[in-house]
Amino acid sequence: MEERVANGHQVDTRSTAHFLHDYASEQADLRRLYEQAKIDQWNAATDIEWAAPLEGDGGLISDDLVDIHGTRFWDAMSEADRVELNHRITRWRLSTLVQGEHGAMLLCSQLVDCVQGQDAKLFQATQVADEARHNEVLQRYLELRLDGETYGLGGNVKEIFDTLLSTSSWYLKTIGLQLVAETFAVSLFRMLAESSKDPVLRQVCRRILQDEARHMGFAMLSLPEIVGQATEAEHREMEDFAVWALSRTLGGIFPLGAYQDMGFGKAELDEIKQFRRERAAGGDETAFRKYFRRDLHDGLVRNLRKVGLLTERITPSLQSFGIKLAA
Ligand SMILES: [Fe+2]
Ligand SMILES: [Fe+2]
């Protein structure tokens, strides 16, 4: 009998589990990362000061991250409406993140099976627990500050994780998750940890950031060897997969539901979207966004180069995403 969950969706997967018969450590740097992962464990229930009060006007993320901040729409809003919009945009952003953390947990549980070395398996087992904690801590935050409701599976989250879950090779999964999505996560959580108004959110993001940096490290330690040994065709497949993952991860998504809930009509929404596009294209972004973008692009170039996937063949694609290679 096929069982289906009511509040979710199914992805059919096919993969190979490698059951090892020898448990000696064979990759010292990955073993060190595993040891670090054990030291760095924390408890979402008790290691966050959940009772810390709100500060300032009660907003959660920085107003800089609300698209209409600094426009006539913002100027026309009452103080209370600005705080409410800040809360709705926060709910929208954290919805995408809590969903992504859930997807990462599912994906890493597959990686425990399909990575081939003992040290990689042990590390992936820790990443499953890390992603479970991230899924939990963001849900706890949503319940504390925003009644626990989330916006529906948004943006490219479904496409990214459905594709990664149904891809059978571990290294493509790792290119999509630990190399691309988690390099993105490191920059995003760093920015939120530094810019958020709510001290609880800053703490949550700082904690997650520490784990995500380690997950990104898994890509740096596990990919160079397999990329180096790849045939020309396999190398191209890896490059193309990285470009696909970049296009989906970097494609900005507009928090439409949050604005609709505030009562913005279609004409106003069109104007806001246009404003958002112009500001991004003209480089006229707020300080936090600019910092995030530079940090992210530098990180992506550095990491792609480190694992051996920054080739001339994919350079035009990177440039089309606005990534400068001089970094
Ligand atoms: Fe995570
Ligand atoms: Fe992660």
TrEMBL record:
GO molecular function annotations of the record: oxidoreductase activity
Highest taxon above the source species: Bacteria
InterPro entries: AurF/CmlI, Ferritin-like_SF, RNR-like
A Pfam family this chain is assigned to: AurF
Name of this chain's protein: Ferritin-like domain-containing protein
Organism: Reyranella soli
